[in-house]
Amino acid sequence: MVAKKSTRRSKRRTAANRSVGSSTKRTVAKRRASTRSSSKRWSRNVTEHSHALDLESGVFSRSDPKSIARSLKRSAEASHHRKSDPYRSAMSMITFYMNRGGRNLSASRRDKLQSAKNELRRLYGRA
């Protein structure tokens, strides 16, 4: 008899799962999954298709922070695609690169990019 009671419970649960609320939950879950997958790689899309600044190739892989800052300053001042002043555009590009690197960016690399930000501030007289 114990088995019959558990069977009844499972049937009740199954009936409850078929209610309108559960189908709505499934729809919401599907919507979230599709939104998550498309928004998950927004930074990749920006990196590949953005024309905010026409950067020199390999600018962020340079070892000298002053060289990185000078290159970003040149690119920011030469670009006509930017919306804000050159300083903000250049600083945003370094910050974007650092954030996109996330945990995969080594401490030494992060320090060099932080030094490049400080150098950029100095170049623009905002240090």
Describe this structure in words.
With 127 residues, the chain is mainly α. The chain has a domain at 65-123. The chain contains six helices and no strands. It has helices at residues 2-17, 20-40, 42-49, 65-78, 86-101, 107-123.
Assign an overall shape.
elongated
Mean pLDDT: 79
Question: How would you spell out the order of helices and strands?
Answer: HHHHHH
DSSP strand count: 0
| CA-CA gap between termini | 81 Å
What ranges have pLDDT less than 50 throughout 5 or more consecutive residues?
Answer: none
Total helix count?
6
Helical coverage, percent range = over 70%
**How big a fraction of the residues is strand?**
under 5%
- Which structural class fits the helix and strand makeup? mainly alpha
What is the CA-based Rg, rounded? 26 Å
Sheet with most strands: none
